[in-house]
Amino acid sequence: MPFSSINSSIGVTLVIGGTAHPGNFTLGPDGYIETSYGTPETVLLEPGAAFINAGNVRGTADKSVPMSGTGIYLAGAGLLLNNGNIIGGGGIAAAALTVSSGEGGNGPAVANDNGGYGVILHAGGTVEGYGFISGNYGGTGGQGYAGTVGVTPLGSGGTGGGGGVGGGGILLQAGGVVVVNGLIYGGDGGRGGFGGLASGNGVGGTGGQGGDGGDGIALLSGGSVVIDAGFGISVAGGNGGRGGFGGEGSLGQGASGNGGKGGAGLALDDGGTVSNAGRIRAGDGGNGDEGGAGGLGVQLGLGARMVSTGNIFGGIGGYGEGAFGAGGAGGDGAFVTGATLLNEGRILGGYGGTGAFSDGGSGAGVVLAFGGVVSNSGSIGGQAGQSRGQLGDPGYTMYGGDGGNGVIIYGGVLINSGTISGGKGGFGLKDDGRDGDAVLFGPTGGAGTLEVEAGAMFIGNVVANHLSVLELAGTSSVALESIGTQFLGFEHISFAPHAQWTIGGDVAALLDGQSITGFAAGDAIILDDLHASSLKVTGKAIDLFGHRVDIALDVSGQTKAPVLLDYSGDNSTISQAMANGKLGTDEFEYVSKGATDTGATIAGGTLDLLSGARAVGPIAFAGTTGGTLILGGKVFSTETITGFGAGDVIKLENVGYVFGASVAVTQPGIVTITDGSASYNLNIAGAVVGETSFKFGPGSVLTMSTSAPAGLLHMPGGGS
Fold first, then answer.
1. What DSSP element (H or E) covers 509?
2. What is the pLDDT of residues 452-469, one digit of tens each?
3. What is the 3-state secondary structure of 170-215?
4. Residues 312-335, buried b or exposed e (16+ Cβ, 10 A)?
5. Beta strand pairing status for 419-421 and 457-459?
6. Domain annotation covers residue 587
């Protein structure tokens, strides 16, 4: 049917679709629709129908009708194109109770004292447009019952009722699509009720707590939200209601109620997807005896997925006005539970509220829990702590607010190639707030992983628990040099496949029982400037002067252990720590410059005497798998090498092969190697003077360092 137009108020729900108004309906720019009490929604859009709104639609709350006050209700797969204004109905104030309990009416406990939703999608449907959609305020809590001598203690007044919850901007109950080109706001929470007046010698009643703000957009079970770039805040939660004032009494005024919590900008309970190129902001906490907490910028529940190139902000905590009042905590930028968040934009926690006694801690950029994944190539930051006033200033606080942490991990994976920062602690007269950490693994959380990629920057400490894993991925030309100084408490360090990184830091922190995984052929662990006396690699562990580091080693194709040492302690003595006194298969031992080897048995493993090292004890080959002796200098030990046989290898690292080089047995057991300009002696048991071949054992090999095939000296018995 042709589009229709209405430009007057109505007293019943306008039903579009079905038999009432089949097809589509248009409300012109001057049009206005508002229902009277007794209707659950102003406009009901049946499945398949469309409503094009350029005017104003407003809901009206009614205590007698559940979920009343909704502006527009989509029953199914309809279309709402909004370029006007849609506002839910305001919550209705609760009346004071007149019972002897002394308690006032409680807003949320009385049906429909909460604010109405702007739009509800019941089972699918689409909402888009450039207009304004908002929930409305929650109802005010009822005043506490006036005190009566003999009924209430000393005639003290009753507690005021709590304020109603603000209505959400848009609620998706079971799927649907929302495209945001305009503004979507949650309604503010209602004010708490006043405390009851006292009589006789009573104290005035405590004010009621403020209601929580409504969410900007909430998805209960799936659905899709697209937020386009625009000016100002695209989606925002409602502010928490202020606490009700305390009642008057001859013995003093009652305390105010606490402020309500700010609503989330965007909340996904179970699944759903979000693409954000705009600005999302949580509602602020309400003021009160203690300030209400700021809301969450984004809450992502199990299975939800969000990609953000825009901005996300947590809400500001409310002001704590009591004598010992604390400001409300700042809201976190994003709370991710079993969900996925890909951030290419900016996420920032909210400021903590100021307080007469102490400021509230500021919010974290992101909280990650229960198997969620956060990948950041933009910026994530904890907010700075509040500072307010100096000594003598009536606005000073005793304790400054704590800075927010950049990311808190209670389980899950954080991947960072961007910037993550902790907030600076705020000033306080007695004590300043603590600085926030860039990344904090929760002390009671499960296993979590921090994957660091090229370009990552951390401003503040990165603090692990005993289950935390630090994984390095990709290729970085910038070394991660702050293990043990900025990166604290990691017991597990992992290299992702094909990762190319250099890490360094405090020796005690690096060598304190960490498990290092992903260590493969071509990787190297370089331990510089250590005053150590020994290193031993046994299977999958390094034992360095009493410290043990567990490693998953893959040394296939390598002829030398992938561990390099630069000792600064000369003349140190190597200790023998091998099992059964032998270097078995895949076991490695190094002796530094100036250090002394007191003897070793090579049973399939490797002994590397670096240049300047000495061997003052016997060196014996044993076993059937072949062992390796690496001699890094040109002056060799006078100790005799025994047991050199088939499969064994001696490498002369700094004796180069040139044309005319020779090998001869010049004395019993002494092999003289000439490289064309100098001669070197090597004591090998079994070498006989006068023999034209070297009887070191069938198939044994002596290799001189060179890349030319001629550098391999052939021995009798088929060795090469």
1. helix 507-510
2. 999 999 999 999 888 888
3. EEECCCCEEEECCEEECCCCCCCCCCCCCCCCCCCCCCCCCCCCCC
4. bbbbbbbbbbbeebbbbbbbbbbb
5. parallel
6. no
Q: Is the dihedral of CA 32, 38, 41, 43 positive or negative?
A: negative
Rounded Cα distance, 359 and 397, in Å: 7
The range of the structural domain enclosing residue 229 comes to 1-289
Residue 107 near residue 61 (C-beta atoms within 8 A): no
Whole-number Å distance between alpha carbons of 255 and 356: 14
In a domain, 616, yes or no: no
| Rounded Cα distance, 486 and 503, in Å | 12
- From residue 564, alpha-carbon distances to 528, 626, 704 in Å are 9, 22, 21
How far separated are the first and last CA of the chain, in Å rounded? Answer: 95
Cα atoms found within 13 Å of the Cα of residue 387, Cβ hemisphere only: 16
Pairing assessment for the beta strands 298-302 and 614-615 based on DSSP bridges: unpaired
Taking a C-beta distance cutoff of 8 angstroms, is the pair 410, 448 a contact?
yes
Neighbouring-strand partners of residue 348: 313, 381
Question: Does the pTM of the predicted model rise above 0.85?
Answer: no
Q: 3-class DSSP state for residue 633?
A: coil
> SS3 of 508, please?
helix
184 domain residue, yes or no: yes
* Residue (of 36, 127, 121) closest to 84 by Cα position: 127
Q: CA separation (Å) from 690 to 244, 378, 684?
A: 109, 75, 15
What's the pLDDT tens digit per position in 502-524?
777 765 666 555 667 766 655 65
Instruction: Tell me how far apart the alpha carbons of residues 67 and 173 are, in angstroms, rounded to a whole number.
Output: 13
Task: Please list the alpha-helical segments (H only) found in 184-324.
Answer: none
- Return the bridge partners of 224, or none: 177, 273
Compute CA 634 distance to the chain's CA centroid, rounded to the nearest angstrom.
54
The two tokens of residue 154 are 């000393």
Number of structural domains found in the chain:
1
Which pairing describes strands 628-631 and 132-134: parallel, antiparallel, or unpaired?
unpaired
Instruction: Report strand pairing: 407-410 vs 50-53.
Output: unpaired
626-638 pLDDT, tens digit each? 788 888 777 776 7
d(CA 179, CA 374): 24
